[in-house]
Specification:
By secondary structure, the chain is of the alpha/beta class.
Length: 300
């Protein structure tokens, strides 16, 4: 399968002061998809502008025609499956069936305590994620759902007429641990990773490739247990969190080298951050646009 190139546009711009233009430019540049983070705020951006993911994606849906749109990623930290499902079928309808839901277990960032709760332990996040994803799957595929779980309850929740995409919009499940990989194998149309976070500070690109190869192998085992062909899942790498950091965006050649190494591992989509000056995602916009228009054609 040929490699696809996508971008992630952080929701830091007012819509009429640069926000709309970025999403429209992403479509003009030929990106496969444009995603945004679904957080209440995030890391170094906490004290600056940060807008909601789903309203931003709804606006992007009305400003574009072909570009796929999605979250990278939504989590249970501040979402409930019943309300999220209603918003997703609405967004899928407005976009004409162009939405992918990136979904993960969440972490210990600002989202984890913004509603006044204690941050969940890794086990608690995994437990909630294991209930969240199957219930959301049901809510998006069945006309009426009642279910009482340990964490999430639905009582005659109705989501007619359902998604434009059938049987529902695709899930891209972010996971590296065994429980998350099982969810990806059972419910995902794609799998998402950022690499091994333990290697970010002091690891090497070679160690990262080895770690990613191991993740894909474990995904394959999870798929085998679910009686599913791992080749059926798209494999998405969100760039910027491996030891390569932002160096692949320094030139088209550097990106082609990076992308080629990861295409050989089996990745079908690489997502690069739209440049933001003064941040970890700072990059030369002209080189970024050259990568968007030239790099994939050189990979074959």
């Amino acid at each position: 399968m040929s490699l696809r190139l996508s971008t992630v546009i952080l929701p830091v711009d007012r819509w009429h002061e640069g926000g709309r233009a970025k999403w429209q430019r992403a479509e003009e540049l030929g990106f496969h998809a444009a995603y945004t983070y679904d957080h209440l705020s995030w890391r170094s951006f906490r004290d600056g502008p940060w807008f909601g993911a789903l309203p931003t994606l709804t606006a992007a849906a009305t400003a574009t025609d072909r570009l796929r749109l999605g979250t990278l990623v939504t989590s249970p930290n501040f979402r409930h499956p019943v309300t999220l499902a209603k918003e997703l079928i609405s967004l899928d309808d407005i976009s004409g069936g162009r939405v992918t839901l990136g979904i993960g277990a969440g972490g210990n960032g600002f989202d984890a305590t913004a509603l006044g709760q204690e941050a969940w332990t890794p086990k608690e996040r995994a437990d909630r994620f294991g209930e969240f994803v199957p219930l959301l799957d049901r809510l998006l595929t069945e006309g009426a759902v009642s279910q009482k779980g340990d964490f999430y309850t639905a009582e005659e929740a109705r989501n007619l007429p359902g998604c434009v995409q059938r049987p529902r919009l695709p899930f891209a499940v972010a996971a590296t641990g065994p429980r998350g990989l099982k969810l990806a194998a059972r419910h995902g149309q794609a799998w998402v990773t950022t690499g091994d976070p333990k290697l970010y500070e002091e690891g090497t690109p070679e160690q990262s490739v080895k770690a990613l190869r191991g993740q894909i192998e474990r995904l394959g085992m999870a798929c085998a247990e679910a009686d599913r062909d791992v080749a059926d899942l798209d494999k998405i790498l969100l760039h910027g969190f491996t030891p390569d950091r932002n160096r692949p965006l320094e030139s088209v050649d550097a990106f082609v080298d990076f992308a080629g190494r990861h295409q050989e591992l089996g990745f079908t989509e690489i997502v690069i951050h739209w440049p933001i000056a003064g941040s970890d995602f700072a990059a030369d916009l002209s080189i970024f646009e050259a990568i968007a228009t030239e790099a994939i054609g050189r990979l074959g």
